[in-house]
Amino acid sequence: MREELYAEIFVMEKEHWWFAARHQIVLDLLRRYLPPQNGERQKVADLGCGCGMMLQRLSQNYDPIGLDGSPHAIDFSSNRKVAAKLGSLPEDVPLERGAYDAVLLLDVLEHLKCDHASVEVAASLLKRGGILICTVPAHMWLWSARDAHHHHFRRYSRGQFSALFAQPSLHLELLSHLNAILFAPAAAWRLFVGAFEQNGVTDLKLLNPKLNSALRKIFAFERKMLGKVPIPFGLSFIALARKR
Protein backbone atom coordinates (compact mmCIF):
# COMPACT_ATOMS: atom_id res chain seq x y z
CA MET A 1 0.00 0.00 0.00
CA ARG A 2 1.22 3.51 -0.73
CA GLU A 3 2.99 4.89 2.34
CA GLU A 4 1.14 8.21 2.41
CA LEU A 5 -2.13 6.33 2.97
CA TYR A 6 -1.12 5.21 6.47
CA ALA A 7 -1.43 8.69 7.99
CA GLU A 8 -4.88 8.97 6.42
CA ILE A 9 -5.95 5.56 7.68
CA PHE A 10 -4.69 6.32 11.18
CA VAL A 11 -7.21 9.17 11.34
CA MET A 12 -10.03 7.38 9.55
CA GLU A 13 -10.08 3.93 11.10
CA LYS A 14 -11.29 5.09 14.51
CA GLU A 15 -14.45 6.85 13.34
CA HIS A 16 -15.06 6.16 9.65
CA TRP A 17 -18.21 4.07 9.22
CA TRP A 18 -16.59 1.39 7.03
CA PHE A 19 -13.76 0.61 9.46
CA ALA A 20 -15.96 0.83 12.56
CA ALA A 21 -18.64 -1.47 11.13
CA ARG A 22 -16.15 -4.01 9.81
CA HIS A 23 -14.53 -4.14 13.24
CA GLN A 24 -17.95 -4.73 14.85
CA ILE A 25 -18.67 -7.56 12.42
CA VAL A 26 -15.34 -9.29 13.05
CA LEU A 27 -15.59 -8.91 16.83
CA ASP A 28 -19.08 -10.43 16.70
CA LEU A 29 -17.77 -13.43 14.74
CA LEU A 30 -15.00 -13.90 17.30
CA ARG A 31 -17.57 -13.96 20.10
CA ARG A 32 -19.75 -16.46 18.24
CA TYR A 33 -17.12 -18.84 16.90
CA LEU A 34 -14.46 -18.51 19.60
CA PRO A 35 -16.20 -18.58 22.97
CA PRO A 36 -14.04 -17.79 26.04
CA GLN A 37 -12.31 -20.71 27.73
CA ASN A 38 -11.29 -20.92 31.39
CA GLY A 39 -11.35 -17.16 31.76
CA GLU A 40 -8.05 -16.79 29.86
CA ARG A 41 -7.52 -14.06 27.28
CA GLN A 42 -7.27 -15.73 23.90
CA LYS A 43 -4.41 -14.89 21.56
CA VAL A 44 -5.32 -13.15 18.29
CA ALA A 45 -2.88 -12.27 15.48
CA ASP A 46 -3.96 -9.46 13.14
CA LEU A 47 -1.86 -9.89 9.98
CA GLY A 48 -1.68 -6.68 7.99
CA CYS A 49 -2.76 -4.74 11.06
CA GLY A 50 -2.35 -1.30 9.49
CA CYS A 51 -2.40 1.48 12.05
CA GLY A 52 -3.57 -0.65 14.96
CA MET A 53 -7.18 0.36 15.58
CA MET A 54 -8.42 -3.23 15.35
CA LEU A 55 -5.67 -4.27 17.77
CA GLN A 56 -6.84 -1.60 20.19
CA ARG A 57 -10.40 -2.89 20.02
CA LEU A 58 -9.25 -6.49 20.38
CA SER A 59 -7.23 -5.61 23.48
CA GLN A 60 -10.42 -5.07 25.49
CA ASN A 61 -11.11 -8.83 25.56
CA TYR A 62 -8.20 -10.62 23.88
CA ASP A 63 -4.42 -10.78 23.87
CA PRO A 64 -3.62 -9.38 20.39
CA ILE A 65 -0.46 -8.99 18.34
CA GLY A 66 -0.18 -7.27 14.97
CA LEU A 67 2.03 -7.80 11.94
CA ASP A 68 2.61 -5.35 9.11
CA GLY A 69 5.18 -4.86 6.39
CA SER A 70 5.31 -1.09 6.73
CA PRO A 71 7.44 0.65 9.38
CA HIS A 72 4.89 3.48 9.21
CA ALA A 73 2.14 1.08 10.26
CA ILE A 74 4.23 -0.18 13.17
CA ASP A 75 4.88 3.40 14.32
CA PHE A 76 1.19 4.29 14.15
CA SER A 77 0.30 1.10 16.05
CA SER A 78 2.79 2.08 18.74
CA ASN A 79 0.99 5.41 19.03
CA ARG A 80 -2.13 3.43 19.92
CA LYS A 81 -0.18 1.55 22.63
CA VAL A 82 -0.65 -1.85 20.98
CA ALA A 83 1.95 -4.48 20.08
CA ALA A 84 2.88 -5.00 16.44
CA LYS A 85 5.85 -6.57 14.69
CA LEU A 86 7.44 -5.77 11.36
CA GLY A 87 7.04 -8.61 8.87
CA SER A 88 5.31 -9.63 5.68
CA LEU A 89 3.40 -12.58 4.29
CA PRO A 90 4.18 -15.18 3.27
CA GLU A 91 7.95 -15.32 3.83
CA ASP A 92 8.68 -13.12 6.86
CA VAL A 93 6.28 -13.86 9.72
CA PRO A 94 8.09 -13.69 13.10
CA LEU A 95 5.23 -15.26 15.05
CA GLU A 96 5.08 -18.62 16.79
CA ARG A 97 3.41 -21.42 14.84
CA GLY A 98 0.44 -23.14 16.44
CA ALA A 99 0.12 -20.50 19.16
CA TYR A 100 -2.97 -18.43 18.28
CA ASP A 101 -6.67 -18.91 18.91
CA ALA A 102 -7.58 -16.64 16.00
CA VAL A 103 -5.83 -15.05 13.03
CA LEU A 104 -7.25 -12.12 11.06
CA LEU A 105 -6.56 -11.18 7.43
CA LEU A 106 -8.77 -8.14 6.96
CA ASP A 107 -8.54 -6.76 3.43
CA VAL A 108 -4.96 -7.97 3.16
CA LEU A 109 -4.89 -10.79 0.59
CA GLU A 110 -5.66 -8.50 -2.34
CA HIS A 111 -2.35 -6.72 -1.62
CA LEU A 112 -0.31 -9.94 -1.90
CA LYS A 113 0.94 -11.75 -5.00
CA CYS A 114 1.09 -15.08 -3.17
CA ASP A 115 -2.35 -15.13 -1.58
CA HIS A 116 -2.69 -18.93 -1.36
CA ALA A 117 0.70 -19.30 0.33
CA SER A 118 -0.21 -16.47 2.70
CA VAL A 119 -3.39 -18.24 3.81
CA GLU A 120 -1.34 -21.40 4.38
CA VAL A 121 1.11 -19.50 6.60
CA ALA A 122 -1.76 -17.81 8.47
CA ALA A 123 -3.30 -21.23 9.13
CA SER A 124 0.03 -22.50 10.49
CA LEU A 125 -0.15 -19.91 13.27
CA LEU A 126 -3.40 -21.34 14.62
CA LYS A 127 -3.90 -23.78 17.44
CA ARG A 128 -6.03 -26.78 16.56
CA GLY A 129 -9.63 -25.55 16.67
CA GLY A 130 -8.56 -21.94 16.16
CA ILE A 131 -10.25 -19.74 13.57
CA LEU A 132 -9.07 -17.73 10.58
CA ILE A 133 -11.20 -14.73 9.53
CA CYS A 134 -10.55 -13.12 6.14
CA THR A 135 -12.17 -10.27 4.22
CA VAL A 136 -11.44 -9.28 0.61
CA PRO A 137 -12.94 -6.96 -2.02
CA ALA A 138 -15.36 -8.69 -4.39
CA HIS A 139 -15.78 -8.74 -8.18
CA MET A 140 -13.24 -7.60 -10.75
CA TRP A 141 -15.99 -5.73 -12.58
CA LEU A 142 -15.88 -3.28 -9.65
CA TRP A 143 -12.16 -2.66 -10.23
CA SER A 144 -11.36 1.04 -10.27
CA ALA A 145 -8.43 3.43 -10.03
CA ARG A 146 -8.93 3.24 -6.27
CA ASP A 147 -7.81 -0.42 -6.32
CA ALA A 148 -4.66 0.52 -8.21
CA HIS A 149 -4.06 3.42 -5.80
CA HIS A 150 -4.16 0.96 -2.89
CA HIS A 151 -1.81 -1.45 -4.70
CA HIS A 152 -4.38 -4.24 -5.08
CA PHE A 153 -3.48 -7.16 -7.31
CA ARG A 154 -7.07 -8.36 -7.67
CA ARG A 155 -10.65 -8.37 -6.52
CA TYR A 156 -12.08 -11.83 -5.91
CA SER A 157 -14.82 -13.99 -7.34
CA ARG A 158 -16.54 -16.34 -4.92
CA GLY A 159 -14.77 -19.32 -6.47
CA GLN A 160 -11.32 -17.71 -6.25
CA PHE A 161 -11.85 -16.80 -2.62
CA SER A 162 -13.25 -20.19 -1.64
CA ALA A 163 -10.28 -21.95 -3.28
CA LEU A 164 -7.88 -20.26 -0.85
CA PHE A 165 -9.31 -22.36 2.00
CA ALA A 166 -9.20 -25.71 0.17
CA GLN A 167 -6.29 -26.79 2.33
CA PRO A 168 -6.01 -29.98 4.41
CA SER A 169 -5.47 -28.00 7.61
CA LEU A 170 -8.63 -25.87 7.27
CA HIS A 171 -12.38 -26.44 7.39
CA LEU A 172 -14.39 -23.61 5.85
CA GLU A 173 -17.34 -22.84 8.15
CA LEU A 174 -18.56 -19.55 6.68
CA LEU A 175 -18.24 -17.80 3.33
CA SER A 176 -20.50 -14.90 2.47
CA HIS A 177 -20.78 -11.64 0.66
CA LEU A 178 -20.48 -8.57 2.88
CA ASN A 179 -21.53 -4.93 2.61
CA ALA A 180 -24.69 -5.93 0.76
CA ILE A 181 -27.23 -3.40 2.01
CA LEU A 182 -25.18 -0.52 0.59
CA PHE A 183 -24.16 -2.50 -2.49
CA ALA A 184 -26.30 -0.79 -5.14
CA PRO A 185 -25.43 2.85 -4.40
CA ALA A 186 -21.79 2.04 -3.65
CA ALA A 187 -21.34 -0.03 -6.82
CA ALA A 188 -23.01 2.66 -8.92
CA TRP A 189 -20.74 5.30 -7.41
CA ARG A 190 -17.61 3.18 -7.98
CA LEU A 191 -18.52 2.55 -11.61
CA PHE A 192 -19.50 6.17 -12.28
CA VAL A 193 -16.40 7.65 -10.67
CA GLY A 194 -14.17 4.96 -12.17
CA ALA A 195 -15.27 5.93 -15.66
CA PHE A 196 -13.73 9.38 -15.22
CA GLU A 197 -11.14 9.08 -12.47
CA GLN A 198 -7.56 8.26 -13.42
CA ASN A 199 -5.55 9.10 -10.31
CA GLY A 200 -7.32 6.78 -7.87
CA VAL A 201 -7.69 9.38 -5.12
CA THR A 202 -9.06 7.59 -2.10
CA ASP A 203 -12.75 7.81 -1.30
CA LEU A 204 -12.09 7.57 2.45
CA LYS A 205 -13.47 10.77 3.89
CA LEU A 206 -14.97 11.65 7.25
CA LEU A 207 -18.63 12.37 6.69
CA ASN A 208 -21.20 14.36 8.57
CA PRO A 209 -21.42 12.60 11.98
CA LYS A 210 -25.11 11.71 11.59
CA LEU A 211 -24.58 10.25 8.11
CA ASN A 212 -21.44 8.44 9.25
CA SER A 213 -23.34 6.92 12.19
CA ALA A 214 -26.23 5.85 9.96
CA LEU A 215 -23.94 4.13 7.45
CA ARG A 216 -22.05 2.39 10.25
CA LYS A 217 -25.28 1.01 11.71
CA ILE A 218 -26.50 -0.14 8.28
CA PHE A 219 -23.27 -1.97 7.48
CA ALA A 220 -22.82 -3.37 11.01
CA PHE A 221 -26.37 -4.79 10.93
CA GLU A 222 -25.07 -7.46 8.58
CA ARG A 223 -23.33 -9.14 11.53
CA LYS A 224 -26.79 -10.39 12.51
CA MET A 225 -27.23 -11.97 9.08
CA LEU A 226 -23.90 -13.74 8.69
CA GLY A 227 -24.22 -17.49 8.99
CA LYS A 228 -27.99 -17.20 9.40
CA VAL A 229 -29.36 -15.59 6.24
CA PRO A 230 -27.80 -15.99 2.76
CA ILE A 231 -26.26 -12.75 1.48
CA PRO A 232 -26.18 -13.17 -2.34
CA PHE A 233 -24.28 -10.01 -3.27
CA GLY A 234 -22.01 -7.38 -1.76
CA LEU A 235 -18.90 -5.26 -2.18
CA SER A 236 -16.76 -7.72 -0.21
CA PHE A 237 -16.45 -11.36 0.80
CA ILE A 238 -15.85 -12.67 4.29
CA ALA A 239 -14.75 -16.17 5.25
CA LEU A 240 -14.21 -18.03 8.51
CA ALA A 241 -12.22 -21.27 8.53
CA ARG A 242 -11.30 -23.50 11.47
CA LYS A 243 -7.98 -25.29 11.98
CA ARG A 244 -8.43 -29.05 11.90
What does this structure look like?
The chain has 244 residues and is of the alpha/beta class. The protein has a single domain, classed as 3-Layer(aba) Sandwich (Rossmann fold). 37% of the residues lie in helices and 20% in strands. The chain contains 9 helices and 7 strands. The protein has a 7-stranded mixed β-sheet. Strand 4, helix 5 and strand 5 form a beta-alpha-beta unit. It starts with a helix and ends with a strand. The model has no long low-confidence stretch (mean pLDDT 92).
Write a concise keyword list for the protein shown above.
244 residues; alpha/beta; Rossmann fold; seven-stranded mixed β-sheet; 20% strand
Gap from first CA to last CA: 33 Å
Element-level helix/strand string: HHEHEHEEHEHHEHHE
Reading side by side through the largest sheet, how are the strands ordered? 3-2-1-4-5-7-6
- Tell the overall outline: globular
CATH fourth-tier homologous superfamily: Vaccinia Virus protein VP39
* Helical run tally: 9
Report mean pLDDT, rounded to a whole number. 92
